[in-house]
Each structure stands twice: as structure tokens, then as C-alpha cells.
Amino acid sequence: MESGKIWFVTGASAGLGLALVKALLEQGHRVAATSRDVDALLEATGAALDGRLLPLAVDLGDERSVRRAVDAAHAAFGGLDVVVNNAACAARGPLDQLSDAALREGFDIGVFGAMNVIRAAMPRLRAQRGGHVFNVSSILGFDGAAEGWGAYCAAKFALGGLTEALAVEAAPHGVRVTLVYPGAARVPAQVARTLIQASQAQYAPRHLFLGRDAFDQARIKIQSVQQELARWREMSIAIGPLDERRLAA
Ligand SMILES: NC(=O)c1ccc[n+]([C@@H]2O[C@H](COP(=O)([O-])OP(=O)(O)OC[C@H]3O[C@@H](n4cnc5c(N)ncnc54)[C@H](OP(=O)(O)O)[C@@H]3O)[C@@H](O)[C@H]2O)c1
Predict the structure, then answer these.
(1) Domains, the chain, ranges and CATH?
(2) 152-182 pLDDT, tens per residue?
(3) Residue whose CA is closest, atom 28 of ligand 1?
(4) Residue 116 Cβ < 6 Å to ligand 1
């Protein structure tokens, strides 16, 4: 009987995805790892194909490609425990100077790609009444005040919104959902180990900020929203509903 959990990680040939795959294999887990380039993935992991790594060539923007990969992971390992939507890309520059195509690519991979994975994986996790979905955002998915990063922020905020909704939809089925916000240029191996730790925690975090910079930036954003709530309170609450009797009924 195999020990460890069965993970599904997207965007695994470099950076955090690669560090996570390596750490998982070292710790005895089984991993289905997706990449646009399986050869690059295999070269980067340097892992012997001993049956614990399933490299999968996937186009995250293509729902059929993603579904085939999730099905293949389930068939190869006999289950699925933890899903990590890690892959992302985004164009940089002032919003009004970014092309429509550049903006959409960030959403295609980071938002619709993640949704393709969620649509394929959630029915399996729900059916087994357990599992964990990690969606990797960024501190810029919590605080969008970053010049030149609008496209990235927009896609990460979208990921954050769908993740919060997913968390409440998944909870009654025993499926845990965590939104991860790394700060700038984190050490991928450390982030990878922290994600594995969070997957093993008794109570999974809904929002996980990684790095002192992310932690401080989140706190400052929360304080500033609290201050604005207080300053504009009277104006905010003076707005009544259209028809109070209908809403109260
Ligand atoms: N690095 C940081 O400082 C930082 C900070 C905050 C948040 N994050 C987030 O953490 C996650 C990992 O970031 P990272 O810096 O380690 O890696 P990354 O270089 O941003 O890319 C992660 C993976 O996404 C996939 N990817 C990139 N462009 C793609 C495209 N056009 N189409 C399909 N897949 C594409 C690639 O996987 P394949 O080549 O294997 O297909 C790549 O390895 C991302 O979600 C990122 O936004 C990173």
C-alpha cells in the first residue's frame, strides 16, 4: 500500500511548481505534474520515473486537455487528494497600454485554467468527501495598488473571488480550499514546504500569506479599508434598500 497523498500540480516545470513537485517526491507523495513541456519538466525534476511522478503535457486553457490529465492522474494513482492551481502568467505595463490579447492570456491560464482544473477535479473530491484545493494567488491578489501590475492583479483578484466561493461550496463536502498569497520573490522551496505543511494541518487556512512582506502588506490593506469604512460609515449606511418590505419578507 502506497503511503502519502496524491497531488495534482499545474505549471510544474519551473519555480514554485517545480519546487513543490520535488519536495512532494522527497516526502514520499505521488504527484501528477502538468506542464506545457513534459521534457523540460522531466529534466527539471531529475526524478527517476518510479511510478510516483506522472508528468502530463497539458494546455491549461483547453478544458478537454485538463480533463484528460485529471482523469489520467486518477487512473494512474487510484485517487486524488490535493490539487494545486499554480500556473500563471501576466503581461506587465500600464493597463491602458496592454492589448486585449495580453490581458486575456493571463485570465486564460490563471483563471479559466484554474477553473478547468476545478471543474474536472471537484466532482471526484466531493464524491470521496475529502481533498484540498490550493489556488496560488499573490499578495497582488489582495492589494492591487501596484503600478504596472494591473493585468496580474486583475487575474489574481478573479482567482481570489472564485476561490472564496469555492471554499463555501466545497466545505459541506469535506473539501478544504486555501488561497495562497506569496509575497515578492519568495524562496520556492520554503513556500513548497509550507504548502505541504498546510495540507496536513487539522484546520486548513482559507487565506495563507507567505513572507513578511505579504503579511505586512495584507495588514496595511486591511487597516486602510477599516479606516475608510469608519470614515464613510454614515454615507454608506444611509443608503437604503429599494424596497425594505420586500427584502424583509
Ligand atoms: N515568484 C514570485 O515572486 C511570486 C510571487 C507571488 C505569487 N507568485 C505566484 O506563484 C505561482 C508560481 O510562480 P513562479 O514565479 O514560481 O512561476 P512562474 O514563472 O510565474 O510560472 C509558473 C508556471 O506557470 C506556467 N506558465 C507560465 N506561463 C504560461 C502560459 N503562458 N501558459 C501556460 N502555462 C504557463 C509555467 O509552467 P510550464 O512551463 O511547466 O507549463 C510556469 O512554470 C504563480 O501563480 C505566481 O503568480 C509568484
Answers:
(1) 6-211 (3.40.50.720)
(2) 999 999 999 999 999 999 999 999 999 999 9
(3) 89
(4) no
What CA–CA distance (Å, rounded) separates 231 from 126? 43
Residue 244 is predicted with a pLDDT of: 63
CB distance 131 to ligand 1 below 6 Å: no
- Please state, in angstroms and as integers, the Cα–Cα distance from residue 13 to each residue in 60, 64, 142, 168, 226, following that order: 14, 21, 26, 31, 40
Predicted model pTM: 0.96
Q: Determine the Cα–Cα distance for residues 86 and 131; give it in Å rounded to an integer.
A: 17
For the chain, list residues with pLDDT below 50: 1
